[in-house]
Each structure stands twice: as structure tokens, then as C-alpha cells.
Design a protein that fits this description.
It comes from Algoriphagus faecimaris. Keywords: Transferase. This is Glycosyltransferase involved in cell wall bisynthesis. InterPro entries: Glyco_trans_1. The protein has 348 residues and is α/β, with parallel strands linked by helices. The chain folds into two domains: 4-167 and 334-346, Rossmann fold; 182-331, Rossmann fold (3-Layer(aba) Sandwich), CATH 3.40.50.2000. It is 37% helix and 18% strand. The protein contains twelve helices and 13 strands. The protein has helices spanning 14-24, 42-59, 73-81, 109-121, 150-153, 200-209, 241-250, 265-272, 285-289, 301-312, 317-331, 334-346; strands at residues 4-8, 28-32, 62-66, 85-90, 124-127, 135-136, 147-148, 182-189, 214-218, 233-237, 251-256, 276-280, 294-296. The strands form three sheets. Strands 10-9-8-11-12-13 form a six-stranded parallel beta sheet, sandwiched between helices. Strands 2-1-3-4-5 form a five-stranded parallel beta sheet, sandwiched between helices. It has a two-stranded antiparallel sheet with strand order 6-7. The longest helix has 18 residues, at 42-59. It is globular and about 60 Å long. The protein starts with a strand and ends with a helix.
Length: 348
């Protein structure tokens, strides 16, 4: 009989759905979820979760919490009290405190305390990249406290950790040979709330300086921005996975110019679809790109402009597109994540 697994999550991004699917291949999965994004109701959800989790944790064999946050406290506490094993998967915002760019759950005092308590009580922490344990942020000049990661912010926590990279579905995010790339086209994926965090401000400046190129923003609507944007900038709004795949397949380059990025799933998706990556030298982005793209050392317009000009002059762009896909299929597939995650869970 399969073991029972309780999966606690505040949200259902594509990587969360992928994890749930692979976990269902090995466990009986029960999900605990509240819409924690409505922060004004967090005390209500915190109380409701208390009563809901007592029987759920008691009846389960293993608890997985996705992201550190308010929702991680009761599951890890009850798992400890009932003699169950628990794991927290950390992704980025739960490992940082960067007030200069309004990023990181750990910049909020009460949330920092709750996350710290959960990280102390859980049996294992599974970061999706090494940078979530310890990293130095030298890309964005605005960031003052450059030392980030849970080992830096919580030096007294000795909970065992294991790096388990995110995995991408290489069959869904494909790169058909018959699809032609749009020349001199650049794509980036972000929400409006992430605009400056993921380098949207810098990309708009690049668009103004490069009128012969086309810049596409998926996840952002034109009405979201109050300022006027250049005519070569196109806002696509929120896209379905299928529509996003089409845009990846048509785009020649992909930007991941984040000031902080726990992993970079959209970057890896784009590379699987043959986009040549241009990424920030921060967190795990250079490791995802490898030798298959270009790295921007600093968030600086002139440096970015020079790098984009270099990208536009790359010979044999089709070969670069294939290299980008190969980099992901050799290092960051869903199958690789499944094998490592299931092995780690079964050893608990």
C-alpha cells in the first residue's frame, strides 16, 4: 500500500503542479491549501489550518510543505508532535530579505520568526538551488545586503538540507524544427508585481535603444504600466501554457535579468523551446544557462546594450538554439527531479 503524503502549498504554479503529479505516482496525496495571497485573511487561514491539520497530520505518513511561510508552522509542528517526518521545499522568496527591491518574506519580522521556527522543526529542507542556502548578490547595485540565503539569515539552524533542482517537461516544452524564429526578437516572462525584480525596467531601456528589435513581455498587460513604452515593446498578458510555448518557440532570445531568482523555471522552459538565453549573473541563473547563452555581470544599461549587440551578432543562431535545449535536457528534466526527490523522501 502506498504511504499517505500531506502536501501543503499556498499556490499552484506550474512547478507545483508538476511536483504534485510526480508525487501522485508514488504516494496517496492529500492537499492542504488556502489562498494565502490575500494577506489580510492570513490570521483566519492560520486558525483554520490549525484545526484542519490536527487530524490530517495524525493520519498521514509524511508532510511536504511548499515554500516557507505562515502555512509552514502548523504542519512542521504537528509532524514533530505526532512523530511524522516533514520536509520544506524552498524556492526563493522564503530565503531572502531584500527591502531595497521589496523582495523576500524574511524581511518581514513576524514572517521571519515563523519561517525560522518551521525551518528548525522540519526534518529536511530541500532548496531548488544552492543559492537559496547561501549566495552573494552583486548583480543589482540597489541591493545593500548582498549576503542572502537561509544559512546566512538563520546561522543557528542546523536542519539537514539537500539540493533538488526543479525539473522541466522536455516533451511539452519542445522545439519543432519547422517553426521559424522571429529575427531579433526578445521574450521575458513576469507578472507586473515582479517588473523591476525581473529586470523589466532595464529591458524597456534596451527597447528604446534598439528600435530595430522586438521585445515581448508575457504575463504583463499594457494597461499595467502607467508610463509610455516604445512601439517595439509588446505586452502579451497572461498566457496559457500552450500559448506561452508558442511564444517561446517563435522568440529568438530570452531575458532572465532578475535581481534575485531562486531557480528560473521560465528560463529553462524558454531554453527547451530553443530560445538563446541572456541572463543575470545572480543566484542559479548562470548554472542553468551554462555555455548555452550569455551572462550579464551587472544591472547596467551600457553593459546590457553591449551584451545584446553581441547576441545579435552571434553566428549560427540555430546551433545556439539547439545548445540551449540540450543544456536543459541534460541537467534539469522532470525525470531527474522525480528520481532525486522520491529517493530522498523514501530515505526519511
Amino acid at each position: 500500500m502506498r504511504k499517505k503524503l500531506l502536501y501543503v502549498t499556498p499556490s499552484f504554479q506550474s512547478f507545483v503542479k508538476a511536483d504534485l503529479q510526480l508525487l501522485k505516482n508514488h504516494f496517496q496525496v492529500c492537499i492542504n491549501h488556502y489562498p494565502w495571497e490575500y494577506k489580510q485573511y492570513a490570521p483566519v487561514y492560520f486558525l483554520r489550518q490549525f484545526f484542519a491539520l490536527i487530524p490530517l497530520v495524525f493520519q498521514t505518513d509524511l508532510v511536504i510543505v511548499n515554500f516557507g511561510g505562515y502555512w509552514a508552522f502548523w504542519p512542521t509542528l504537528f509532524a514533530r508532535l505526532f512523530g511524522k517526518k516533514s520536509v520544506i521545499i524552498i524556492h526563493g522568496t522564503d530565503s531572502a530579505a531584500i527591502p531595497e527591491i521589496n523582495y523576500g518574506s524574511l524581511r518581514i519580522p513576524i514572517l521571519k520568526k515563523i519561517c525560522g521556527a518551521a525551518y528548525l522543526m522540519t526534518d529536511r529542507i530541500f532548496p531548488v538551488s544552492e543559492s537559496l542556502l547561501k549566495t552573494q548578490l552583486n548583480f543589482d547595485p540597489k541591493i545593500l545586503n548582498k549576503n542572502q540565503g537561509i544559512e546566512t539569515i538563520f546561522p543557528k539552524i542546523s536542519t539537514p538540507t539537500e539540493i533538488i533542482y526543479n525539473g522541466l517537461d522536455e516533451e511539452f516544452w519542445d522545439f519543432p524544427a519547422e517553426i521559424a524564429k522571429e529575427e531579433n526578437s526578445f521574450l521575458t516572462v513576469m507578472s507586473y508585481s515582479q517588473f523591476d525584480l525581473k529586470g523589466g525596467d532595464l529591458i524597456l531601456k534596451l527597447a528604446l535603444a534598439l528600435p530595430e528589435c522586438h521585445f515581448y513581455f508575457a504575463g504583463v498587460d499594457a494597461n499595467d504600466l502607467s508610463k509610455k513604452t516604445p512601439e517595439n515593446v509588446h505586452f502579451l498578458g497572461k498566457l496559457s501554457p500552450e500559448k506561452l510555448r508558442e511564444r517561446y518557440q517563435k522568440s529568438q532570445f530570452y531575458f532572465q535579468l532578475s535581481s534575485f531568482e531562486g531557480f528560473g523555471c521560465a528560463l529553462a522552459e524558454a531554453m527547451l523551446c530553443g530560445c538563446i538565453p541572456i541572463g543575470a549573473k545572480t543566484n542559479h541563473i548562470p548554472q542553468i544557462i551554462g555555455e548555452a547563452g550569455l551572462i550579464l555581470a551587472k544591472k547596467d544599461l551600457q553593459l546590457a546594450l553591449d551584451l545584446v549587440q553581441k547576441a545579435l551578432l552571434l553566428p549560427n543562431k540555430k546551433i545556439w538554439s539547439k545548445k540551449a535545449r540540450t543544456q536543459i535536457t541534460q541537467n534539469f528534466t522532470l525525470k531527474m527531479r522525480e528520481e532525486k526527490l522520491i529517493k530522498a523522501l523514501k530515505l526519511l
